């Protein structure tokens, strides 16, 4: 199953705990924060000024 832009950070980290390191490498230091649990990958990329395609590519490696 691929990680998509509509998945929440919480969902990704619960299913693939190792992906937290990828998210943190993109500057998302608070992957365990309550607000991050409901934030989608797309929303997080926008808030952090990240390229969504690059983030998804890294998460799906």
Notable features of this structure?
single chain, 61 residues, 5 helices
Describe this structure in words.
By secondary structure, the protein is an all-alpha fold. The protein has one domain (9-60). The protein has five helices and no strands. It has helices at residues 9-15, 19-25, 34-38, 41-47, 52-59. The longest helix has 8 residues, at 52-59. It is globular and about 25 Å long. The relative contact order is 0.24. The model has no long low-confidence stretch (mean pLDDT 91).
Shape: globular
> Which structural category fits the helices and strands?
mainly alpha
What percent strand? under 5%
Radius of gyration: 10 Å
What is the rounded distance between the termini? Answer: 12 Å
Overall pLDDT: 91
- Helicity range: 55-70%
Number of strands: 0
Order of helices and strands: HHHHH
User: Major β-sheet, in short?
Assistant: none
Number of domains: 1
Uncertain residue ranges: none
Number of helices: 5
């Amino acid at each position: 199953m691929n990680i998509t832009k509509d998945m929440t950070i919480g969902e990704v980290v619960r299913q693939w705990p190792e992906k937290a390191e990828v998210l943190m490498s993109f500057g998302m230091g608070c992957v365990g924060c309550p607000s991050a649990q409901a934030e989608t990958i797309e929303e997080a990329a926008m808030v952090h000024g990240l390229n969504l395609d690059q983030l998804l590519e890294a998460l799906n490696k």
